[in-house]
Structures are given as C-alpha cells and as structure tokens.
Amino acid sequence: MENYKEVRGVFLFLMLFLFGALGAQNISGYWEGSLKITSRDSLRLGMFIEQTGDSLHVELDSPDQYAFGMPTQQVRFLYDTLSWKAPSLNASFRGVHNGDAITGTFTQNRQRFPIALTPGKRTVLHRPQTPNPPYPYRSEDIRLRTRDGKLVLIDGTLTMPDSTPPSALYILISGSGWQDRDESLMGHKPFLVIADHLTRTQNAAVFRYDDFPQAIFLKSTTLDFADGVQLIMDSLLASPELARLPVVLLGHSEGSIVAFIVGSKDPRVSKIITLGGVAQPIHEVLLYQIRAIYETDTVLTPAEIDKTVQLSDQLYRLVRKSKDRKEAARRIGDFWDDQSAKLTPEDQKRYNMTPEGKYTSIQQLSSPWFFTLFHLDPKVYIKKVHCPVVAINGEKDLQVDAVANQQLMRKYLSKKQNHQFHIVPNANHLLQTCATGSPSEYGNIEETIGEETLRLLDR
User: Fold this and answer.
1) Is 136 helix (H, G, I), strand (E, B) or coil?
2) Is residue 277 scored above 70 in pLDDT?
3) Which residues are bridge partners to 159 per DSSP?
4) For labelling alongside 207, which of 11, 270, 278, 361 has CA 20 to 30 A away?
5) How far apart are CA 293 and CA 438, in angstroms?
6) For 16-20, what is the mean pLDDT?
7) 231-260: b or e for each residue (b if 16 or more CB lie within 10 Å)?
8) Contact call for residues 347 and 353 (beta carbons, < 8 A)
9) Which domains does the chain have, with CATH numbers?
10) Please, are residues 22 and 79 in contact by the beta-carbon 8 Å criterion?
C-alpha cells in the first residue's frame, strides 16, 4: 500500500510537470494558410490566437473575402493539438502544432479541407468612416421575441440622442442574404455608419438589427421579413419615448422591397428611403446583374456572356412558371440535365452546368425565400405606398439598374406625394465612390458610403 502511494505520487508529479510544460507552449500570434477549394481556386484562412495562461481565444480571418475577427468557441489546446468550433460558420478545426506550423483539417458543412498554417502578418483594413466608442449618444441593445413569446426573433441596437427628444424613428432594413445589424461586408459596416450619422446630425432614433436566427431565416421569405419590420414597429412604438415619432423605413437593395411592402399597408410609415432600391421583378434584376458584372469583370467573350444570360433566363422562367417549390426543383433538375448533355465537359465548367452547379441551383432557386421572391412583383406594393419616397441609386451599380428601377418607381408611385429621385455619380451598389462598380472593388475601397449619399439622407 505504501508503495502504491509512492508510485501514485510520482505519477501525479509527472502529470503536473507534463501539463506545466504544455502550458509553456505559447502559440499566440497570427497564423495563415490556404484552403484548396477546387483544383483552380484557393482561399486564405487566418487564425489570430491570444493565449493568457491556460486561456485561449481564437479569431478567424478570411482575407480574400474581407471577413475578419469571426468568433470561435470550445477552443482547446491539449498536448500539441489545437481545436475549435465556429457555429456561425458551421465550421470546425483540429490541427497539430509542431513549432513552425499548425497542420490539420478545416471542416465546413461536412466538407473537409487539409491546411497548413504558418506565422504571418495579419491584414489590417482601413475603414475611416467606421465610428468607434465612446459615442455622443445612447446605444441600447434590444431583443424582440415572436408575438407568441416563444422564440427570440430579432436582436438589434437602438441609438438615441442623449439629451434631446428624438426627431424620428429610423428602421434600417438590410439586403439579400443573412446580414448582421451593421450590414457588415468586406470590413465595411454601412448600417453602423448610417445609424451614427443620423443620430449625430438628425437627432434621430435609429434601430438596426440582425436578420432572423439562421434556423428561422432559412425558412423565411421577403413577406416574413416585412412582418418582422411590423413587429419592430409595434414593439418600439409602445415605448412612451418613441410612441409619437414619425417612422422612416430605410431599405437597402431587397430591403427596399420589404420597406415598400410595409409602407403599402401600414399608415404609421411616414417616409421610405431606398438605397440601391428595386422596382423590377427579381428575374430582371438578376439578368441585369449577370450581364453587367460579366461585361465589367470577367474573361468571358460577348458570345459566352449572351449564352450565360440566355441559360439563366430560361432557368428563371421555369421557376416562375412552377406552382410550388417541389415542381420548381424538378424543373430545374430536368433543365440542367438536358442542357448539360448538349455541352462539352469544358463548356459545362465554363457555364457552371456541372453536377455541383445543379445541386446548388436547386437548393437556391427552390428555397422558400427565392421561390417567393420570383413570384413577388414589387409594382403591386409600390402602387399602394401612401408616403413620400426618397430613392437613392448609384450610377455605376452593377447589381441594380439605377435608371430602369427609378423610372419604374416614378411610374408606380402615387403622384400625390413629393418623392425624390437621386442617382449618385460614380457610386456602386453600396453607394461607395468607385471606378467600375464591380463587386470585386467593394473591399478595396476604403470609403464605406459616399458623403453625397449621407447628405441626401438628411433631406
């Protein structure tokens, strides 16, 4: 028994010594490697690691996508193995540190990518318009539940003037795809910049919010997003401090359609502001995008661009003619099989008529959101809008045709109101001052939103 205690004591000592040695391994710093996405494409992944004692903190960067500081959870560094999870990305990592590198596997959406990360220099983006605290106004995070109180639906931030009553309540509505409350993109935070500007210069109360939680978002449509805006109005206007304020809806891109839907039926909306606003049916918007972006930023020939637009048009028509999502999925699959059979393997890759492209198109175009948007005509709602509209579009917007969409707004909107229409010179879809308008420029431009656009918001 005495021998057992002696041996056990030696074992515990060795374990403590071992873990003490492990704790001495410090992997703090920035590590970067490349993920091989396809045979031709790669994507840089960076890990910024802070180690304080036994505590580790890991942030992820995707420099090629201008995404930085993405959080991780369940960080572990045991022996020489680092692991973490990133639920917001549906991703995880496990790798071994050998002094000169961290070599392991990055997993996302069940796809596994080997990667070797070595010490590097972290990219620092210059975004001079992004405001930083302390702010000269109040800022309050607000959480709103579904009307039955069962689920958290909306997380957002309300900014308010500190010492004077607010002049109006602005609600900022983001564009397509899941967006956070700042509408963060490539290091830019347009809605943070806009909220800061309106609260500082107009003494406005401004509410910006994350899109629905992912599980709810994936099942939601543009009509559901409009219901969400009305829930925000009901909740915020119940506050005595906000109850009698005029309500202004500011919608960017698809957010403009949401604003028109709400403005068509809710008399509490006193004004709508659209940035890169949409009045065309979505299939026309998408066809414009394809041609405009490919003509500006691609190696495709004019004939190849025409072919791409033609195939896309045929595909969109099938979705619009389908009575439900199941029929749309079937039609897309049949179309894909028929068209790809007519193409050489090289042309299948050129026009993305591959099995992977087929799967992605079925998933996207038959999703609740896309299917509903294809069957939704903005004209129906714009004609019923009862309040003034300020439409601001960029001259070089390659995602929404500024002239065509403003012409339709002028046509559909009531002539009883004093509407304003502005096309900002040399501005893109984000209303940045740009050279070509291509989305590939968004991250390279330091300006988040043009000063002329911010001035137009004050009118």
Assistant:
1) coil
2) yes
3) 139, 206
4) 278
5) 6
6) 36
7) bbbebbeeeeebeebebbbbbbbbbbbbbb
8) yes
9) 25-119 (2.40.128.120), 137-281+376-457 (3.40.50.1820), 283-373 (no CATH)
10) yes
